[in-house]
Design brief:
It is built from 14 helices and 15 strands. With about 425 residues, it is of the alpha/beta class. The two termini are about 25 Å apart.
């Protein structure tokens, strides 16, 4: 597969992460070693570690809208509005039926259903107390639908369920729709409200995959020999994507260009990743971009800090980038935990400024590097100034064997 015109570019970024609510704040904290993990009371389970976002929900919504809607919808609205503002598009006069909203999610609806069951348990499970907002809150398209309502967008607005590969998938799908001419402007990326459902914490705990550490900020520790699991986090990162000709015509700032991508499946296990298929996904993304491994300067890993998962991804990366002295490897989850459906989109955002400052943010909390994760080019604990950053490769993998690789390159006319 090779990409033809039109070229697709990133023109706006809006985000909220456990350690920042703007791209500049997020990036500053990634370079300064500032994480965002804290203790949170989880229903039925007590105090656990989580990545919590502290954005101003009332910036773009009323109290009633927040009450009627969902946390995922609120995060989506905040990120979408921030991205549109950042793009400086003339949104008021833009044809709203030519705007598409494509938001990746890991899961949706669990939070609202758990809350309703808990609420009616106080009334002997009498369903007359069940909220009439439950159905629109729990449909899979809710986050994108809330964005369409809030911004008055009448074009296609829906979510993409792709487990923890969903953030990448939002951008990939938007690029495809722009190339097909289905829309002229896309709002895309990924969001997660996962920390508000006890079920996901209970599920990872039952798999012995939930991180613990006496110091919350050190709990997420990919590649460290003492890593012991995932820190569950919420968050969101949405982008505005446009065809290059349209972006140039309106004088837009361009963060980078979508160069290539691949999505494939392991078809081998419900949970355990397959390093062979992951390496295949990376190679096919490189082929779609017309690039060699040596052309990539930053590889952002998916690594979640599970003992086996990190090793298998390192095997996949090592198989592709074994002889690439100018390729540097980092990880964002060490700062913010695993933002599930938002992970890939947030991790890309954290690396985009490298095109300008030529600095690779590190993986933090690596006190004792696991020899099986000791990849050449791994940047740990301190940022690294480099000579060139022309291409970023972003890996996001998920349960049931879904793999996604997205490559963004420096924009050149």
């Amino acid at each position: 597969m090779s990409f033809k015109s039109p070229r697709i570019v990133i023109t706006g970024v809006g985000l909220t992460a456990p350690n920042g609510n703007t791209l500049s704040e997020f990036r500053h904290n990634l370079l300064s070693g500032v994480g965002g993990i804290e203790k949170k009371e989880i229903r039925y389970m007590g105090e656990l570690l989580a990545g919590v976002c502290h954005y101003d929900a009332l910036k773009y919504q009323t109290k009633k809208e927040i009450r009627v809607g969902t946390r995922a919808g609120s995060i989506s609205i905040y990120c979408a509005r921030e991205a549109v503002a950042d793009s400086k598009v003339d949104f008021a006069s833009f044809a709203k039926d030519r705007i598409g909203v494509y938001i990746g999610t890991t899961e949706h609806g669990n939070v609202e259903t758990e809350n309703e069951v808990y609420a009616i348990s106080k009334f002997n499970y009498d369903t007359k107390y069940w909220s009439h907002y439950h159905n629109p809150r729990t449909v899979s398209n809710n986050p994108a639908g809330e964005v369409s309502l809030n911004l008055g967008i009448t074009g296609p607005a829906y979510t993409i369920g792709a487990a923890c590969a969903a953030g990448n998938m939002g951008l990939i799908h938007a690029a495809q729709m722009l190339r097909l001419g289905e829309v002229d402007f896309a709002i895309c990326g990924g969001v997660s409200e996962s920390i508000h459902t006890f079920g996901i914490f209970a599920g990872f705990k039952s798999q012995n995959a939930l991180a613990s550490h006496p110091e919350p900020l050190k709990a997420s520790r990919p590649f460290d020999k003492a890593r012991n699991g995932i820190v569950i986090s919420e968050g969101g990162a949405l982008y505005t994507l446009e065809r290059l000709d349209d972006a140039i015509a309106r004088g837009a700032k361009i963060y980078g260009e979508i160069a290539g991508y691949c999505v494939n499946s392991d078809a081998s296990d419900y949970v355990l990743p397959n390093p062979g298929r992951q390496a295949e996904c990376v190679r096919k993304a490189l082929a779609s971009a017309g690039m060699a491994p040596q052309d990539i300067h930053i590889v952002n890993t998916h690594a979640t800090a599970t003992p086996l998962g990190d090793i298998q991804e390192c095997q996949a990366i090592g198989a592709v980038f074994a002889n690439c002295p100018d390729t540097y490897i980092n990880n964002t989850k060490s700062f913010i935990g695993h933002c599930m459906g938002a992970a890939g989109a947030l991790e890309l955002a954290g690396n985009l400024p490298s095109f300008d400052d030529l600095t690779v943010h590190p993986t933090i909390n690596v006190d004792d590097l696991d020899p099986q994760c000791a990849l050449p080019g791994l940047v740990i604990n301190q940022p690294k100034k480099v000579g060139k950053v022309d291409a970023i490769l972003n890996n996001s993998f998920g349960m049931l064997g879904i793999n996604s690789t997205l490559i963004v390159k420096r924009f050149t006319a």
